[in-house]
Design goal:
By secondary structure, the protein is mainly alpha-helical. It has one domain. The chain is 68% helix and 0% strand. It is built from nine helices and no strands. Helix 1 packs antiparallel against helix 2 and helix 2 packs parallel to helix 5. The two termini are 18 Å apart.
Length: 145
Amino acid sequence: MKRSEKALQLYSNGFNCAQSVIASFADILDVSEETAIRMASGFGGGMGRMQETCGAATGAFMVIGYLRGKFKEGDDESNDRTNKLIQEFSRRFTHEHGSVNCKALIKFDINSEEGMVEAKEADVFNKKCTHFVKTSVELLEEIIA
């Protein structure tokens, strides 16, 4: 199964966008799927449903950080590389979807009861968010290759 298919399966099973992205890379992160899902549990809906940076993007950022990030004191080269990869991901995601901001992407305020009802009625989580999850996984595969 392709990573994007795995991520979409997780998303359709009720995991948030960040969880779905990071868990689809659990094998190369050398962590269990459960660990990946737990780590990303607070990042859906634009980080804690604050509708800031899209959870599918933050899931990708976590994968980039784990694979390419700084983990040794003084390793500023890894820190710079990670920032550049995240900026590249963000640029490409924005080119594809117009933004990396959750609220701008889905165009609903899901923190109000009325906004959540409207978002669900518009089926935004299936019609839009699935595309963000798929794009994130595909871009991430290209960027970390």
